[in-house]
């Protein structure tokens, strides 16, 4: 069992390190271009490897927090990726089965994170993982609620998919940095190790997304800013 854990740990580290490197490249190159698509897909599949290996390791070492936070992280990336395929959705009928499966799974994971956090805090107030779990659970449920709203009432703005795509993918990258910090920044208090990427990254993400939104409000079209292709 220990050898299996070490094997999945190698996969986890390799995929996580690659995701950590390629995501900024995808952010900086032109949206929708060949390089953006290449590095964006590489980030998505690396995150799939990160989460899959984390699931196995969490079972082998009985780590429920790792299991649940992996589901939280993956949904951010998977949701952002799936928005590419919902560009032309106009009603709930246009939402694919995979999107419903993902959102149901994310709801369960985030409810579990929230409940796990409440249990830890009620057991001992000094357990920082309890507060981390509660915060991530609430953030995840809020993200799920917004996506469900867009599934049942797709946004009318033609550029909305791009903003949601950016939010999901950048949110997933923030989660990656959080995990990297938790493993490597042991000199920081545990709660700071996990939360500083969100404290810094989330406001910056909204600034960037709102910058695009202002461009669209001034008359820019998606084709002016993005090389739009399907897939």
Tell me what you see in this structure.
This protein has 231 residues and is mainly alpha-helical. It has a domain at 2-90 and 158-225. It contains eight helices and no strands.
Q: Figure out the total of helices.
A: 8
- Which residues sit in consecutive blocks of at least 5 with pLDDT less than 50? none
CA-CA gap between termini: 39 Å
- Strand proportion, as a percent range, falls in under 5%
Major sheet size, sense and barrel closure: none
Rg value: 18 Å
The best one-word shape is globular
What is the N-to-C order of secondary-structure elements (H for helix, E for strand)?
Answer: HHHHHHHH
Helix content: over 70%
Mean of all residue-level pLDDT scores:
89
* Helix/strand class: mainly alpha
Number of strands: 0
List the helices and strands and how they pair.
Layout: H1 2-28, H2 34-60, H3 64-82, H4 97-123, H5 128-152, H6 160-184, H7 190-217, H8 222-225
Task: Describe, in short, the structure shown.
The protein has helices at residues 2-28, 34-60, 64-82, 97-123, 128-152, 160-184, 190-217, 222-225. With 231 residues, the chain is mainly alpha-helical.
Keywords summarizing the entry:
231 residues, mainly alpha, 8 helices, 79% helix, 0% strand, globular
């Amino acid at each position: 069992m220990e050898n299996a854990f070490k094997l999945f740990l190698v996969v986890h580290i390799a995929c996580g390190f690659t995701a950590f490197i390629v995501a900024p490249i995808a952010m900086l190159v032109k949206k929708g271009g060949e390089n953006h698509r290449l590095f964006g897909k590489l980030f998505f599949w690396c995150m799939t490897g990160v989460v899959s290996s984390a699931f196995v390791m969490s079972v082998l070492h009985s780590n429920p927090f790792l299991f649940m936070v992996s589901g939280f992280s993956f949904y951010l990336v998977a949701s952002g990726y799936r928005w590419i395929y919902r560009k032309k959705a106009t009603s709930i009928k246009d939402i694919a089965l995979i999107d419903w499966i993902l959102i149901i799974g994310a709801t369960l994971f985030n409810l579990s994170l929230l409940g796990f956090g409440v249990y830890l805090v009620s057991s001992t107030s000094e357990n920082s993982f309890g507060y981390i779990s509660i915060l991530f659970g609430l953030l995840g449920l809020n993200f799920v609620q917004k996506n469900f709203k867009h599934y049942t009432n797709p946004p009318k703005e033609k550029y909305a998919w791009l903003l949601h795509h950016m939010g999901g993918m950048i949110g997933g990258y923030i989660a990656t940095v959080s995990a990297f910090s938790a493993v490597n920044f042991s000199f920081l208090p545990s709660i700071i190790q996990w939360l500083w990427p969100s404290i810094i990254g989330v406001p910056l993400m909204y600034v960037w997304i709102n910058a695009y939104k202002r461009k669209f409000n001034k008359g820019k079209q998606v084709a002016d800013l993005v090389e739009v292709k399907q897939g």
